[in-house]
Specification:
mainly alpha
Amino acid sequence: MEKQAAGQHTFAPRRERGLDSFRRTLRRSARRKGRGPLGAVARGVAVAASITVIGVALFALILNWWNASDRAITAINQVVKFVSILAGVASAMRGGEGGAMRGASVGVLYMALGILCYSLLMGQSPHLTAYLADLGMGLAAGGLFGMILNTRRTGAA
């Protein structure tokens, strides 16, 4: 009491900052850490690749008990690719803009990584002309998923 009367200040809590200040701080820290659009796309490709590895491993276990035809295996592989691209795009869209561009980037890079891994495992050199359909599918699926997720996130009709 005597200190206050003498004009000395005591500890005063800081005023609470608003939600806008919190968002600006998050954006600044994201820029400092290098988690911009390129980091988000890289994270999306990593998530998509991880989902693919898990999906293919589970599918290989199921094939031990199920005698599937070649057409069924091809169809299930396509479903695994689509689910992986969707998960990767969803991961890349967290906290960012540009849904179609991020989605298309994730799709193309994911498919290119898959083609490269397949070529290395099979001992072949990658021929992009033979895999243009896969790259096109990744581009189209990623861009479409990005647009859909961006529209759902912003609430636009």
